[in-house]
Task: inverse folding
């Protein structure tokens, strides 16, 4: 059965987020040969349409309004619901980002539909579109299907491979005018704390520090390493509780869930709280003085040693590698 | 103020997880208030203490959730409501739970509803915003600060590490993020008092809901544990050589850099 599937393209600082390309790939699977329609909501976002098409969308619907210059639940819900009403799709995919988590349940409630949140894979099996998602803090997985109505899901960043970018692809771009009214919650101010460069939840490499970093300054060598690898810096709850860094960096059951290609845990013991946020990373490296530390049980590679010796050496070695390759 | 807290009894995911008969094995497992809902309970108590009013804690589940509701009462909530779905709902989903909660709340004079931003077992984070939409009230998710002045509410929201300062108004639903507060432990007098506080038990019939009205829109077809990870390679030898070897392995064997 072919389906028409809508995929919301999410922007950050004027660019599309990677998770949007991953969502298009998921949308293609859900569509089973049907049409994938990209949706862009914001102010001055239509220029990004071409990229959605290059990553696999067949055409794009754009809703632009000055009231949509920032994400608000009320504004974006009105815009997306208008597109849904016009297009009547059988599928809808969003990224499981801050925006997707906030917006998708509301859309689902409005449409009285199901919603499968935080999917890490999607396949077609036995006539069903089957989503895989982690449960119990990533200690188990479930396969889930929609039994009634719209096939609606959010996808966890970094898990579903995007399609290869094809710059020769072209698709129609249509704009839809929506009257945005009654914003009941207004953003007065945005305080930027997290994002020096790479977004933690989408980073391909994460360098993470625990109590072993001993102080706020102790994060410096980790930042150096992250810079060389183009990665982001994260932290365990222990490091945040000890005030070595902001809670915005926390990875774990409380905090962010990350699934980078490479996760380097420095001075992290590996409490369950922390593992829940990173154990699905593709490759895990542990650096810890304590050879008995729990983190070595989930690590693919481990070095028993002082992070303040090991991390700078690693940084140097990766620098050499970058020069040679 | 009429304050409601949506509370879920959850499996303590610090427990070892095993599967039997295609389901997560719950025998002997520890059950707790979902940690994010604990922040919601604490915040509700603080808002009541500052503004007056009453805190009602609601849970949709089985009789067993009474224990977690009593804990919330012992922390300082005033009343509890258990909507017992044991006989009526076999495999509910977030649509089911939200519909039931909204049906209970729709004729209440609600000023503020609080819940956790996600439950650590199912991890969907849907129920709070769904309830707000069904009640047609605004909501703000993943909040780390809540200030109420009359009907004006200023909320700080965590957005992937950045903060948004949002102005909105009552009635309102918010979902709690870590950092909102430090939930208190129930005191001994609190535990004694909680035994006498009202805990009402309702079923779907009492809400004029039929099983069909709340039938799930999604279905779990399989639950499984992730493949057990092979023990990793702990390097040895001179530290400089270990580092060189690690970089080499990441480059050529794991191919991640």
Result:
């Amino acid at each position: 059965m072919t389906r028409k599937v809508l995929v919301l393209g999410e922007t950050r600082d004027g660019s599309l987020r990677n998770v949007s390309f991953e969502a298009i790939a998921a949308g293609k699977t859900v569509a089973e040969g049907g049409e994938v329609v990209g949706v862009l909501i914001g102010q001055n976002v239509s220029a990004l349409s071409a990229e959605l098409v290059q990553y696999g969308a067949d055409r794009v619907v754009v809703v632009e309004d000055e009231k949509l210059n920032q994400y608000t639940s009320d504004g974006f819900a009105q815009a997306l619901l208008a597109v849904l009403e016009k297009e009547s799709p059988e599928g809808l995919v969003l990224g499981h980002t801050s925006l997707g988590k906030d917006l998708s349940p509301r859309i689902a409630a409005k449409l009285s539909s199901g919603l499968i949140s935080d999917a890490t894979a999607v396949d077609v099996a036995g006539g069903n579109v089957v989503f895989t998602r982690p449960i119990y803090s990533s200690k188990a997985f479930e396969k889930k299907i929609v039994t009634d109505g719209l096939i609606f899901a959010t996808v966890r960043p970094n898990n579903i491979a995007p399609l290869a970018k094809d710059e020769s692809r072209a698709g129609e771009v249509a704009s839809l005018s929506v009257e945005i009214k009654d914003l009941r919650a207004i953003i007065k101010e945005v305080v930027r704390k997290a994002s020096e460069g790479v977004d933690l939840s989408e980073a391909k490499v994460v360098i993470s520090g625990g109590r072993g970093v001993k102080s706020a300054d102790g994060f410096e060598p980790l930042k150096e390493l992250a810079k060389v690898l183009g990665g982001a810096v994260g932290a365990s709850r222990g490091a945040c509780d000890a005030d070595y860094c902001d809670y915005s960096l926390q990875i774990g059951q409380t905090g962010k869930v990350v699934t980078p290609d490479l996760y380097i845990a420095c001075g992290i013991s590996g409490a369950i709280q922390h593992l829940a946020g990173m154990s699905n990373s593709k490759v895990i490296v542990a650096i810890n003085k304590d050879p008995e530390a729990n983190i070595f049980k989930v690590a693919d590679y481990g070095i028993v040693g002082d992070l303040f010796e090991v991390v700078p050496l690693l940084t140097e070695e990766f620098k050499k590698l970058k020069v040679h390759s | 103020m009429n304050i409601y807290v949506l509370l879920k009894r959850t499996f303590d995911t610090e427990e070892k997880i095993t599967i039997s008969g295609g389901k997560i094995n719950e025998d002997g497992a520890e059950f707790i208030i979902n940690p994010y809902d604990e922040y919601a309970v604490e915040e509700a108590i603080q808002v009541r203490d500052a503004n007056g009013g009453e805190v009602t804690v609601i849970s949709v589940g089985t009789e067993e959730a009474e224990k977690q509701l009593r804990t919330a009462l012992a922390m300082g909530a005033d009343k509890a409501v258990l909507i017992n779905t044991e006989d009526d709902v076999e495999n509910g989903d977030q649509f089911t739970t939200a519909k039931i909660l909204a049906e209970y709340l729709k004729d209440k004079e609600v000023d503020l509803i609080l819940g956790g931003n996600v439950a650590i077992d199912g991890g969907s984070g849907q129920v709070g915003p769904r309830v707000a939409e069904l009640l047609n009230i605004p909501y703000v998710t993943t909040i780390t600060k809540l200030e109420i002045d009359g009907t004006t509410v200023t909320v700080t929201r965590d957005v992937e590490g950045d903060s948004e300062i949002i102005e909105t108004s009552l009635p309102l639903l918010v979902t709690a993020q870590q950092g909102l507060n430090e939930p208190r432990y129930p005191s001994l007098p609190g535990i004694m008092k909680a035994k006498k506080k009202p805990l009402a038990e309702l079923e779907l019939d009492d809400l004029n809901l039929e099983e069909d009205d709340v039938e799930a829109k999604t279905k779990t077809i399989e639950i499984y544990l992730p493949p057990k990870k092979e023990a990793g390679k702990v390097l040895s030898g001179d530290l400089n050589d270990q580092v060189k070897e690690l970089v080499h392995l990441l480059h050529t064997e794991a191919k991640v850099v």
In short: The mean pLDDT of chain A is 95. Chain A touches chain B through 94 residues (CB under 8 Å). Chain A has two domains: 5-175, 200-324. Chain A has nine helices and 18 strands.
